[in-house]
Amino acid sequence: MKSFQTLDDIVSFWAGETPDAPALLSKGQRPLTYLGLSEIVSDFRDFLSHIGISRNDRIAIVHSGGADMSTAMTALACSATVVPLNPALTMDEFFLHLRDKNIDALAIETGLPSSARKAAEMLNIPILEINSKNPGTAGSICLSGETIAKETIAPMAAETDDLLVVFSTSGTTSHGKTIPLSHHTMMPRLANMVKMLGMSRQDQMLNIMPLFHTGGFSAGMLTSLYSGASFFPIKNNDVDLLFRSLAEAQPTIISGGYTVFHSIERKAADYREIIDSVKPSLRMLRTGTGHLDEKVSQSLTSIFETPVVEAYGSAETSFMSCTNLPPLANKPGSVGQPDRTRISIVDENETPVQPGEKGEIVVTRTTVFNGYENNPTADSEAFSQDWYHTGDEGYLDEDGFLFVTGRLKEMINRGGIKIIPTEIDQAALMHEAVREAVAYPLPHKTLGDDLALAIVLEAGKSASANEIKAFLKKALISNKIPSHILFVKEIPKSATGKPQRRKLHHQLELKIADSFNSQDEMSGAGTASEEKLKNIWQDVLEKEDIGLNDNFFALGGDSLQAVDLFMRIEKELDRSLPRDILFEAGTIRELAQLIDEEQTASCIVAIQPNGSRPPLFFVHPIGGEVLGYRELARHLKADQPFYGIQQFHSGDDFARYASIEDMADFYLGEIRELQPTGPYFLGGHSFGGLVAYRIAQKLSALGEEIAFLGLLDSYLPNSKRYITPQEWLVRHFRIWLRLPAREKPDYMLQRIKNINKAITRAVRLKFLSATKGQKKQKNRSLSNIDINALNARNYHPTPYNGNATLFRTELPISIHPDIHKEWYRLVNGNLEICEISGGHVEIMKEPNVRELASKLTAYLEKAQVEKPLHSRVG
Asked: Measuring CA to CA, how many Å separate 523 from each of 512, 536, 541, 550?
């Protein structure tokens, strides 16, 4: 396709090449041809020069949209600089835009009720009227107004270095940041967008994106003109008008914002016959401005029988990526495969991260705009030496597909826990009853932000807040579960169709103190656990009027009070709970239910109970908890059941396991209660791997089949664990020599602290090993770590006649490099070694846990093919 230098070149070329081809369309009107558009551009240029306006003079345009606005913006940008403004702005907002953007004239639709006129008059800015010239033809308009300059200027078309358009971001400041874009910047962008979308002069784009937004103006109207195609704009996000225009438009592309496509999908059932009539011509639905929910995308693909193409970009960068057109492959949730010479993912130090690891999406400086206007602060935040920082979080997978996970500036800081709200949105949208979901922050005096979730339900479906919370627990860790879930008919959005998360707590009028009001329950008696907890809460929070369904954080509780709360629960109810459980069970009723369930529960914890694959049983690490397995389970296949085996807490009448042998016997019985026969899939991290190994031996001795045994960096207790003191000194000395002088004292101090900790631990275990059996087991001052460390010391493993997979991590400097070699002697079958990035603890955390899950999945799928499950689980 021919390349162009300016917008005027585009219009002139197609007016000569295809003069009678339709450029602009509108329902019930004749098309405006490229020749007709070129004539209007010429008329505008003559009029503007006559009243004293020429190249680079800035003309703000305020219009209701449609083909008339398309013509006006094109004609103004061919001779001057166009500055599109949202017609719904207030008078104060118009005043700021007109003043700060140095507007030379305001072009406004005749008869449009808008406070833009008053703002222009206050600033003595000339007003030009956009009038309909020929109502029977789409986009047929003319311009009128008073003379501005004393002398007439010769008509001149804009040149390549002139500004074409000035946009505003939808930022958090009073009127966003100003983005000036020249013809020189815009022409390569348009060529790239046309190439990505495969556009040609045969295309007809039906557009329902606002023309004052870059999505409607650049990605919609200008790409159509660049390719010689036809452009059919719909006013005011009118979805019903879009459907009624389908038969006349016969579009090859329907273009709209992601929120509008939600409405299109919802209303499609009323227009099935019209949709069927345009399927032969339609080749894509193009969306942008945000991520379209996968559920809606799949539904649209089915309804229109055409692919949904999602573009990722901004006014600052243009298209950075776009989902592939058939027959090329795509991945659900991805925005395509960007040019890796242009796009990268970096950490806080601007170091590129590994595939699968999240970071900030950055773009090479040479391919973006030149900077914000009169805003050095914004420039310094956005630009570094090599990169433009988008402010978006995302990752590239191993195949180069880009996944955008959220806005870093929208991150919610919930008591030190950083939450990307789009992750919560996507998790909630997986529920069959949820149509729309937007997570947002609620200001909190001690947490900083608490987390709320607004939900619009599907027509005819219902769900409760508790049901949604329970559903979210399958996909999210506990500190990402919203404290407040609000069901609404509609979620407020900006003019461009985006929810403004920081404003939602005002727009939805949700007050923290009132949102969980439970006055009706304050006088009612609860269960024994609820009453005990209520007394503890009243003491810790120093409040009397607390209901059973009141949220701890909504009542003003903070992290320090949470520590006091858990200490009291442990002391008075003899229950040790994970410290982040308040985000999951934040009310007295929820916490009491959790405590009561734990008293009688099996040691088997259903972290992910659903799925058709054989269940995977993972034994707890040395601390006895299985909470650390949640992230691992979440990154496995959605249909992979995952059960954690946790260690019981001690009680006055419950002796803890005297050996790994006892532990394996008990856990084996619990596993067989859930899965009576094999093949079995077992594993464990660190200490848990030793117990899983012994369980596998016992099941094998019973004639059961072990399909998979996974040892996550498990060390054998009697192996050579540490390097010699001499080697330790040499290694640390070499590291110390390479350190900057200012870091050397701290490095030495940390080594001394570690030595002291190791000596204290060794002495403690030596003392405990001398304590007699039952006294040791029932000693309530002993932790699970103490008991399990002693049991590991006394464990003498024997050979196993089956197969195993050892997931080996990067070793700490003090650990002997041969620490895993004894497994070769013990495992008589096939021992596979799988290397995992990260250390012994780090493999269970992001981003390493994602890699671990991916590799674990590959081994599981191989074993599941070889040893399918024939028995019933449950």
From this structure: 22, 17, 18, 13
pLDDT of amino acid 654: 41
* Contact between 277 and 348 (Cβ < 8 Å): no
Residues 279, 281, 285, CA angle at the centre, nearest 5°?
A: 70
- The segments of the chain whose pLDDT lies below 50 read 171-174, 511-523, 599-601, 649-655, 772-778, 780, 871-874
Claim to verify: residue 359 and residue 301 sit in the same structural domain: no
**Separation of alpha carbons 47 and 698, rounded Å:** 93
3-state SS, 267-334, equals HHHHHHHHHHHHCCCCCEEEEECCCCCHHHHHHHHHHHCCCEEEEEEECCCEEEEECCCCCCCCCCCC
Residue type, 844: M
The confidence score (pLDDT) of residue 871 equals 43
Please report the pLDDT score of residue 173 as a whole number: 41
Q: CA of 535: how far to CAs of 514, 538, 545, 569, in Å?
A: 21, 5, 11, 11
Q: Are 309 and 284 in contact (CB under 8 A)?
A: yes
**Residue 770 CB-density burial (10 A; 0-12 exposed, 13-18 middle, 19+ buried):** exposed
Distance (Å, whole) CA 837 – CA 854: 12
Given 376, 403, 430, which residue is the final one in a domain? 403
Domain boundary among 479, 512, 545: 512
Instruction: Supply the pLDDT for residue 596.
Output: 72
What interhelical angle do 294-304 and 258-267 show, nearest 10?
50
Split into its structural domains, the chain has a count of 6
Contact (CB, 8 A) for 530 and 548 = yes
Which residues neighbour 296 within 8 Å (Cβ) at sequence distance 6 or greater? 261, 262, 265
- Residue 688 CA to residue 682 CA, distance in Å, equals 10
Residues 387, 360: contact at Cβ < 8 Å? no
